[in-house]
């Protein structure tokens, strides 16, 4: 009987923790949405008003007047689309090379690959920028897209580990049947690893959607702004005045990622399990 | 074609990218850091002058101090928070799935929008945080508008984001053999003892990993700081300063030298943490 009470007590404590923790986690969203639907006289008031009444939609209209949100989201999607396919495909290609073949200097090259994961983005950032500006390609999406076609180190690392777990039998049988290695890679390996490819594709999308520094460095023309740049300039432009429209814009910008969180979470969870980081 | 050559072909794209986007830029960065280059006009070789100037630059020390102070507080706080959340959610109770999603959120939902929302939450007059404190009878501070409260403001954001690593911890918790807990319970160990003597030691590899990641990301903190700022220049983290030197003042040589110093700091800290590994990280 005492054990039973202890168990109930533990559960109650846990749920109290879950609920207060969740309230803290959700507070930013609640506050964002609440503000987005309030007119200024309900926003700038003490004590604060939790629920908008009446619900006010003009902040969205005003947000669209200040920045072309849809255009910026579209720009970001263009970058992501042009980038992700290449990034995922090439990363898989390289990962397969490291997972299945022996060639000269392979081990040293793999150590170099690992070292570049630690490597300072900040150190290469400025020379790379200068290189693109020599080529006249700053203020374009090329510097944000093209490097992805040489593979992404973390994706290569992840996929190499994933490919290594595949049994070799089918590949050997295909070799005997006369298939070359690119066919094997394309017809077998890529097909088998679809869930893993979706996972890194989603990572790549989030990387593009949430990146600020890279886009800030390369894009100057407001017509080419991404959603992050658009929000950042909106925030700097208006300072502390237009909180309603700013929250409306932030809300719209977060909708795609919230969808990913709700409907694609299992891919991230699986990806983390696949990584199985140990020591 | 020989199999070894095929393998080389597979990795060739990466190798090309390595040369183009890593090797050449690094070599270039060595030279650039020794010039007074401002992107337009010529670059003059000035040897180690940039580094000398940096060591006399008050803003260098200030921004470095801001970054280091943030790292010292944020890393333990976030690791502790993530650990607490993961241990509490490591069960199959009703609703655990929903709570996991909620706590995992910061790893997916981030960027400028979240930073802007936090700026509004922290608004001293109309923000929700000070209103909540008001309900508790506490007069909230001016947060980002008070130099002394800038760091705590950033720490609140860091704690919010801490549980983004939830599933990494949960995966590690799952790997701990059940028998360890069972035999410990039979021997009369309570919850605290089981966490202290089983869970924590078994999680040290993940704690180590998160410590390294924490150091790297603290020193590279940019987006939040760029949006939130802070009174008395207390929000100028190292990367924000570096970015400004490079892309607002076009002091490419100076900024590259700053980047090398940042790299050396991150690299040595990682080496030091790696050296301590054998004293506290469990390995099979």
Characterization of the model:
The complex is a heterodimer of chains A (279) and B (284). By secondary structure, chain A is mainly alpha-helical. Chain A contains 14 helices and no strands. Chain A has 2 domains: 2-56; 68-222 and 253-275, MetI-like (MetI-like fold). In chain A, helix 13 (227-238) packs antiparallel against helix 14 (243-275). The relative contact order of chain A is 0.13. Chain B has one domain (51-280): Orthogonal Bundle (MetI-like fold). Chain B has helices spanning 3-32, 49-54, 58-88, 96-104, 112-121, 128-135, 150-162, 166-174, 178-186, 191-219, 223-228, 238-247, 252-280.
Counted by DSSP, the helix tally of chain A is: 14
Described by strand count, sense and barrel closure, the largest sheet of chain A is:
none
The CATH architecture category of chain B equals: Orthogonal Bundle
Give the full name of the CATH homologous superfamily of chain B: MetI-like
